[in-house]
Amino acid sequence: MLRAVTGDAWIQAVLADFDNFLLDHAAAERKAAAMATSFVVQYPDKFALHIPMVRLAREELLHYQQVLALIHKRKLIWERDEKDPYIAGLLPHLSTDKRLRLLDRLLLGSVVEARGVERFGLVAENVADEKLQRFYDRLSKSEATHTELFAKLARKYFDETEIEQRLDHWLDLEAAAIQAVPVRAALH
Ligand SMILES: [Fe+2]
Ligand SMILES: [Fe+2]
Q1: Segment 124-169, tens digit of pLDDT
Q2: Nearest bound ligand to CA 62?
Q3: Please, are residues 2 and 147 in contact by the beta-carbon 8 Å criterion?
Q4: What is the distance in A from the centroid of ligand 2 to the CA of 116?
Q5: pLDDT, tens digit (0-9, with 9 covering 90-100), for 84-108
Q6: DSSP 68-110
Q7: pTM for this one?
Q8: Which domains, ranges and CATH numbers included, belong to the chain?
Q9: DSSP state of 47
């Protein structure tokens, strides 16, 4: 569903500096877990979101734990946490209307997960180490279930036409945001 295909330069940058990629990847998983729990805190009356979002947070934290294990094996030390420029480019586009903001947040979640599917898939296909191939293949498949989860949750609160229209908008924004980020050894 994505409208900008990740080019070869990105995977080459990742393979050339896999240590930095891992450090960034770990941060992305931790932020994904925090984002999932924030839905629970910010939408106390949207019961249908709560348990799926907590489950999602647990899965993202498990990914975080798994990437941390790889970081420890390589004895990598992270520096101060930095904002993800891709996410920072997307967040200002969330609607300020309370009702639409929920739809936007769910669709943003869905498209960001879809980018994870694509990029983890590229790592799985291109990394030399077979264990890492299997790990990133599993992650890619897991993020695909998250893409679908966000879409499913959107359908609980919004009708199909509104979702389609807004998703179309987010797919354009996402393509622009990913292309605006310089190529580097990072998830985005
Ligand atoms: Fe994840
Ligand atoms: Fe995810």
Answers
A1: 999 999 999 999 999 999 999 999 999 999 999 999 999 999 999 9
A2: 1
A3: no
A4: 7
A5: 999 999 999 999 999 999 999 999 9
A6: HHHHHHTT----S----HHHHHHGGGS-SSHHHHHHHHHHHHH
A7: 0.97
A8: 8-180 (1.20.1260.10)
A9: H
